[in-house]
Amino acid sequence: MPGLYFEEFEPGQIIDHEVRRTVTETDNVLFSTMTLNMAPLHLDAEYSKDSIHGQRLMNSLFVHGLVCGISMHETTYGTTLGNLGFQETKFPKPVFHGDTIRVRTEIVAVRESKSRDDSGIVTFRHQGINQRDEIVCDTTRVGLMIKKSSLAESQPA
């Protein structure tokens, strides 16, 4: 699996993810309607012309999911037991149709699990950054990560 095991994370480690994604009107309309977020700022171009941004905004939950999704392949793909939670999420700049988002992950903290011998807890800070180098999403996530050493212990001799 391409994800990293618990032992491979260090506080201060930075991962600039290679995958980038240009977001589209279709992404926004589909995500907003599938999640029943009918806010006119996402769906109504005429309404949004008179907003402070002058155009529709990408749904922030879509942006949050995209940022976490982009980070997953190089951090937790196949090596996580699950997310334990999100501590804080901010959207300092809006995202518009046609913006291209890249992601940077910082490892904030790493600690042994108090209740499990096969895993540890890693705190990730994911930042979504647009093509203008503006941070558009800043979120802190905590994951329960498999220890590589526990895999070796479970293998028959």
UniProtKB/TrEMBL annotation:
InterPro entries: HotDog_dom_sf, MaoC-like_dom, MCH/BMMD. CDD domains: FkbR2. It comes from the Bacteria. Residues 10-120 form the MaoC-like domain. PANTHER family: BETA-METHYLMALYL-COA DEHYDRATASE, MONOAMINE OXIDASE-RELATED. Belongs to the enoyl-CoA hydratase/isomerase family. This is MaoC family dehydratase. It comes from Gordonia prachuapensis.
